[in-house]
Amino acid sequence: MGQLTSGERALGAAILIGLAILGIAMAAVGQNDPLGIHGGMIFLVSVGLLFLLISSSFGPEPDPARFSKYYDDPIKVGVALTLIWAIFGMFIGVWAAAQLAWPSLNFDTAWASFGRIRPAHTSGVIFGFGGNALITTSYHVVQRTSRARLADQFSPWFVLLGFNLFCLIAISGYFLGVTQSKEYAEAEWYADFWLVIVWVTYFILYVRTLARRKEPHIYVANWYYLAFILVVAILHIVNNLAVPISFTHAKSYTVWAGVQDSMVQWWYGHNAVAFFLTAGFLGMLYYYLPKRAQRPIFSYRLSILSFWGITFFYMWAGSHHLHYTALPHWVQNLGMTFSVMLLVPSWASAGNALLTLNGAWDKVRDDATLRFMMMAAFFYGLSTFEGSFMAIRPVNSLSHYTDWTVGHVHAGALGWVAMITFGALYTLVPSIWKRERMYSAGLVEVHFWLALVGTLIYVFAMWNSGIIQGLMWRTYTQDDTLAYSFVDTLVAMYPYYIARAFGGLLFLIGAIVASYNVWMTVRTPAPAPSSAGEDLPLGDRPVATPSPAE
């Protein structure tokens, strides 16, 4: 905060005072409602940040020379928040998985029941871990590929800390039983409203930074990041249109009704996968993989074509979540058709990434960080093929409502999203902290194998479990009655649920190893400053820029 000007500190103080007053008002009117608890939390967070801001206000004005360098302070805090949420979200996930094998782990309490900790896990991992990783890396990538400092110093902090306030309010609400019962959109109206403010600020900041660029070309990674920011805003607003029962209660009711509610929800839900968990992380892939491999993207044209294919096709695919429901048959067919077509741009991106490594496989063999990115591209191709396959109606009749879907989701979440994130962090951390390398290459290697083995155990357990479930559910006797009861299927799933919990535990241990490695890297003394120009907006063009031939 020492780099903020007195005007920026005054603006920050005004916003924090306003939030503190809002927190007091929420606590006062919601005394017998979870709204009051969240009001108290908002007040405490605001006062804590205000104290930090005031404590830094007595120093001198920041050096004007800072404008000749990239603004990396929010990125450093973002790295820490990403890893904190990773450990939290993955721990809750392991706990939830263990509850399915040993139900007594809910300790006979409401707040620890599976129905409450499961959305805490999904939101903690998707929004806490994934969202912070996307915001953090987008700040880094947009500056390097534009050769321009972030448009201002206040907005990056507002977006980063405001987004984490949303995550805190949303996830704590799940433990309290506050939920809209919408997949990936469980947060209630007041948290949703706050996120809109934060997200619009994020979009404006990103566009303003691109407008200041000294690089004439807008590199493709920024296309993906900008699509992620813009489309998520649209999805969030439309899906979360709701009317609170009163401004003194947390509960609200959606404006959508019946089958329309289901359609809007899965238009949102699948496009959250498309633009939050795909487009944003492809932006990450298209910068950090070429940077680490020291090779340009195999085909820059192909990256642009896959961008437009993903952007257009994904918008129509959400209805494949609603096969065999009251949704009109033609809408189900539309979702199925576009889901199959999605395989083309998705594999174009996965193939583009793997072909970029052609001629650099010796680096993949020796560099575990690059191996993270390679495996991420592989799992991206695998999970997108599986998604298109499962969207076909006859296949969906077997897979839907089974653990196969859980395996599919985690092939993408663990194998694709988490692996590209850790690969990006291992590339990013030494760069912004001015270290030659990570503290321990051996620990990166250990983390890679923990992550890969944990993912394979988890995914294969769920694939086997899901297919067995589906087959048992559709097995009939000669009398046309079900051959197996629901309890019979649970007994058959038991060993797979233990395997799932073990696979998740390995992945969690890997995240803890990564956090320790990052912490020790930051604590290691920096070498003598060099004149390499990495910090200068007018420095060298990034390795990942398109070659003249393309």
Write up what this structure looks like.
With 550 residues, the chain is mainly alpha-helical. Helix content is 71%, strand content 1%. The chain has helices at residues 6-29, 34-55, 73-101, 114-146, 154-176, 189-211, 220-239, 258-293, 300-314, 329-341, 343-356, 361-366, 368-390, 393-399, 403-432, 441-473, 486-523, and strands spanning 242-244, 252-254. The protein has a two-stranded antiparallel sheet. A hairpin with a 7-residue loop joins strand 1 (242-244) and strand 2 (252-254). Helix 4 (114-146) runs parallel beside helix 15. The chain starts with 5 loop residues before the first helix and ends in a 27-residue tail after the last helix. Residues 536-550 have low confidence and may be disordered.
Topology diagram in text:
Blueprint: H1 6-29, H2 34-55, H3 73-101, H4 114-146, H5 154-176, H6 189-211, H7 220-239, E1 242-244, E2 252-254, H8 258-293, H9 300-314, H10 329-341, H11 343-356, H12 361-366, H13 368-390, H14 393-399, H15 403-432, H16 441-473, H17 486-523
Antiparallel strand pairs: 1-2
Helix pairs in contact: 1-2, 2-5, 3-4, 3-17, 4-5, 4-8, 4-15, 5-6, 6-7, 7-8, 7-9, 8-9, 8-13, 8-15, 9-11, 10-13, 11-13, 13-15, 13-16, 15-16, 15-17, 16-17
